[in-house]
């Protein structure tokens, strides 16, 4: 028929795979490329491309030498709440693994954002974020030593930083947050248990308290196949 739209073989295979996955449970094995190619009557490369799309979307995941149906993405609210609250809301078990905790000197941009002089000591806390033991994010938090140096004596980096700050009397006021897509560096990919070809969601945030005094700068990356963000919008 004139004007008919030609549908690619990869799209057709994706449609078949969507139907296949709908009948499987989380953790169930996905048939091998060779088996799927025979079943759908296409080349293995076509199946491989369709599976790669599902992998990037977080619908499936590699496990050993096989592929299984993945858990739903962890949906994080865009709010002044901790990662812990978002994970627990979805019935997931949050966790953190400390990568490094050291002092750095504030450069001009960081000094302005945190309200300190250039060269002032700033704590850099880097942690891998977990959900049910799976690595889903890598978070770098910067706080001034002058205001938050006490954390070194009492804070357990495996727990919620926001909970510790609130317990100390810090009242969160507002944050400016920017989210964009990126590709992880080799180091970041290794810490996240992914590859440099797998897109991540990069978040940059500056948070202030109710008196508009800076609290933190955060740079975090989240696996795009494991995490999604949501917010509530209303026109009132």
Automatic annotation (TrEMBL):
Keywords: DNA-binding, Transcription, Transcription regulation. Residues 5-72 form the HTH gntR-type domain. It comes from the Bacteria. The keyword Transmembrane does not apply. InterPro entries: Bact_HTH_transcr_reg, Chorismate_lyase_/UTRA_dom_sf, Tscrpt_reg_HTH_GntR, UTRA, WH-like_DNA-bd_sf, WH_DNA-bd_sf. SUPFAM superfamilies: Chorismate lyase-like, Winged helix' DNA-binding domain. GO terms for biological process: negative regulation of DNA-templated transcription. CDD domains: WHTH_GntR (cd07377). SMART domains: HTH_GNTR (SM00345), UTRA (SM00866). It holds the Pfam family UTRA. One of its GO terms (molecular function) is DNA binding. PANTHER family: MANNOSYL-D-GLYCERATE TRANSPORT/METABOLISM SYSTEM REPRESSOR MNGR-RELATED, MANNOSYL-D-GLYCERATE TRANSPORT_METABOLISM SYSTEM REPRESSOR MNGR-RELATED. This is GntR-family transcriptional regulator.
